[in-house]
Amino acid sequence: MLHTNQDTSEQPTIIIGSGLAGLSCAFELADQGKKVIVLEAAPYIGGRTANWNEHGMGVESGFHKFIGYYVALPELLERAGIVLDEIVHWETTTNIRHPEAEGTFGLDLLKAPLKTLAGALGNNDLLSPLDKASLAPFFAAGFKDYLANPEELDEIPIKEYAKKHGVTDKALERLIEPLSSGIFFLPIEQYSTYAFFGLFAPAIPRPHLIRIGAFKGGMTQVMTEPLSRAIEERGGQVMTGKPVAHLLVENGAVTGVQLEDGTQMQAEQVVVAANIRRSQLLVGEHFSDQEWCQNFLALEMMPYVTAQFEATEKLAGADHTNFGPGTQLGSFSEQSRTTFQRPTGRASIILVDPDKLIDLPDEEVWELTRNSLHAVDLPNVDTMTQYRIIRGKENFYRLSAGNEKHRPQQITPVPGLFLAGDYTKQPLLATMEGAVISGQRAARGILKGHK
Ligand SMILES: Cc1cc2nc3c(=O)[nH]c(=O)nc-3n(C[C@H](O)[C@H](O)[C@H](O)COP(=O)(O)OP(=O)(O)OC[C@H]3O[C@@H](n4cnc5c(N)ncnc54)[C@H](O)[C@@H]3O)c2cc1C
Fold it and tell me: What is the mean pLDDT of residues 135-143?
């Protein structure tokens, strides 16, 4: 049911950024009859959940997996009239491809319980029974510490924590590395133990929901554009090509924004839902003398680097998630049957240790990618017809040890100023679900009348 009780007051809420955080915030406000305007700098909607054309090749920020235990994102999509099963293909297996061994794991306890259990108990080439046994005390201690001492857990890198709890070197490299670096890029020497357990904790009460899905189409087309249309149906506006240069501040309160072209727009509230670095710049310009802001400015960033390519042959026999421990491959997937449908090949790879790769020329990054795919026995990479290296320096907060305490709340002490974005404080780390939760929290703050 659409609300028609549009707010008739003069000034809208302005939301800077059309990623999932900005869109989810806008949806909640528009749904409650608030006047909202989303200002997006890029020519397309979606931020890190976008696809676009990069010099003649269709690309995305990087391949995205929908985790089965997400709640806020599926509910948002449903309310916006987007049918989840029409946009997501649920995978039944995942592969860990180490240069010396390979393992296949079932992913769906509900629909394929035997395959799932066989995966966990089998795969002895990849991990011996001794390696697997070394993981039990580690997981038990980790989930306990995650609930009891999250701040302390965030001070320890996952490698150190795993060693302390007796995880064997093989299990560390072949299982802990894919489940950490394979997901959030950083090497295990840096990766926060809090982030490691935080990703799996939501599944403990609902293990049957650990399944992962690939998008059936580009994320802008199947998710963020329809979401933006749902906002507009509720009276909101979503505008692209509108980079915000400054916040307008009067008497210590945020009263609007100034675009890069000099246009000023007044607002009742401003929600900064830009990526972390832009948000730090916009907010830091005015409030860096305030303690909460100094803490936020201390939140570090990390880059990301992905390789995406088209080929005359498919890289793998199925479009499902692979991890490549012991190589430059974090996680990767053939996508020609799902996200970028075509009769020939199309694959996407998220590379590990982006700090080392971010400034390398495309040719060198591609060479490392190609060599790594050969190392895990995927020679069809040699049928590549075109590739793109898609990278970003300033989009992610750094999931390394010691950063969690710097993540800011969505409701700030500054009148008229709210933050949204996966980097803000919420339990779902740097994920689509986390971004949606952050946007909803900012909207709730506005609707409750926080100044
Ligand atoms: C390679 C890669 C793989 C990922 N894999 C997964 C995955 O498998 N599963 C998962 O759940 N999540 C994944 N993520 C994370 C997920 O994409 C993010 O957590 C989420 O999309 C963040 O949304 P956001 O709204 O917080 O930020 P963003 O999507 O970054 O949105 C910020 C927006 O603000 C805009 N902006 C910036 N500055 C300005 C300005 N001055 N004026 C106006 N607009 C501005 C930007 O253009 C952008 O559109 C992945 C991300 C990447 C990059």
Answer: 93
